[in-house]
Specification:
The chain has 241 residues and is mostly helical. It has six helices and no strands. Helices cover 85% and strands 0% of the residues.
Length: 241
């Protein structure tokens, strides 16, 4: 049973002979009641403070848990980002290495092809140079023969010189036709006629034709017969239609 300050103040005692002084007992009971009431107030105040502190501690503990969870989540997110960045970097590195290997292999193949084509190009150049020298020599012989025929005092020498000149001229013509024919075939095999036709939308005029001839004269395919060039263009045009 709990005792309140009011219980102490209202407590009544029976009077006996030679008992305590009633006034002193009442005053003491009042003092005890006041002290008890203050103690109760102090107790309640302390309980309220304890409740508030407990609540504050719980709030702080909750905030601490949230902070720890946030830190853990942030750390996990950072680790995931690092792992993704590492994987992406490895993937990019592998792709770059693969591309580098492919480029290197292509370059090696092209270098080997170019190296294998060098002797062929040298032989072709030597053949062209030999043919050009032969044509020049035939031209020189023709000029010398004609000069001898013009200055010779004997008619038979003149006739003989003229016949030799005709034979030399025939050789020059045949050599020239062979060279122009080979050049025409090389130009046709290169695919340039088709590309030229496509770039001009399958139609061309005199200026286009003149520009093509000028370009060919500056290329390795010259000399060629312009009429043969026109024939090749028409044939290629029909094949593309």
């Amino acid at each position: 049973m709990k005792i309140t300050p009011l219980d102490i103040q209202q407590k009544q005692f029976r009077v006996r002979f030679r008992g305590f002084e009633i006034v002193e007992v009442g005053d003491f009971l009042d003092l005890v009641a006041n002290e008890f009431e203050e103690l109760l107030h102090e107790k309640n105040r302390l309980k309220e403070e304890e409740r508030q502190k407990t609540q504050k501690i719980q709030e702080l503990e909750g905030a601490g848990r949230d902070l720890r969870n946030a830190l853990i989540s942030g750390q996990q997110f950072i680790e995931e980002m690092k792992d993704n960045a590492r994987k992406e970097g490895e993937l990019i590195s592998e792709k770059a290495k693969a591309q580098a290997r492919k480029i290197l292999e292509t370059a090696q193949v092209q270098a080997m092809q170019a190296e294998s084509e060098i002797p062929q190009l040298k032989r072709r150049r030597a053949e062209v140079e030999a043919r050009v020298r032969g044509i020049l020599e035939m031209h020189k012989k023709l000029v010398d023969t004609r000069a001898e025929g013009l200055i010779s005092p004997w008619p038979f020498k003149k006739r003989g010189g003229t016949s030799q000149a005709k034979r030399d001229a025939g050789k020059i013509h045949r050599g020239s036709e062979s060279l122009t024919g080979e050049n025409l075939e090389r130009w046709k095999a290169s695919g340039e006629p088709k590309r030229w036709i496509i770039s001009h939308n399958y139609s061309w005029n005199h200026n286009d034709w003149s520009s093509l001839l000028e370009a060919l004269k500056k290329s390795d395919y010259w000399p060629m017969n312009p009429d043969d060039v026109g024939t090749v263009l028409e044939e290629e045009k029909r094949s593309l239609a």
